[in-house]
Every structure is written in C-alpha cells, then in structure tokens.
Amino acid sequence: MREKVEAVEVMCPKCRETRIIYLPKEEIPTCPRCRVPMVIRELLNEGKAY
User: Which superkingdom heads the taxonomic lineage of this protein's source (predicted)?
Assistant: First the structure.
C-alpha cells in the first residue's frame, strides 16, 4: 500500500532555520549550520493565502 506523502515544515531549535520536507519520503534532516536534528514546526496540509 502507498502511504500518503505530507509536506512538513521543520525548524532548527538553535538558529531557527526552516525547511520543507515530505514525509515519509524524506527523513527529518540535521541543521547544516548547528549539526542538531531539526524539529517539526508545522504540518502543511492546507492551502494558505496571506
């Protein structure tokens, strides 16, 4: 069975750098500057207009 791919915004807890990844296709990355694991900030499952 295919799993649903979801966009997730991840953030570094130290320097606040953010990235968008797709779970479960990609794993949660480590921050390129701080070398610490990034944490999930927001699930991007709805369209937003600002």
Answer: Bacteria
Q: Long-range contact list for 2-10, CB < 8 A, 24+ apart? A: 6/43, 6/44, 6/45, 7/43, 7/44, 7/45, 8/40, 8/42, 8/43, 8/44, 9/40, 9/41, 9/42, 9/43, 9/44, 10/38, 10/39, 10/40, 10/41
Query: Is 28 a member of any domain?
Result: yes
What are the pLDDT digits (tens) for 1-45?
567 888 999 999 999 999 999 988 889 999 999 999 999 999 887
Does residue 1 sit within a domain?
no
- Identify whether 38 is part of a domain: yes
Q: Is the pTM of this model over 0.85?
A: no
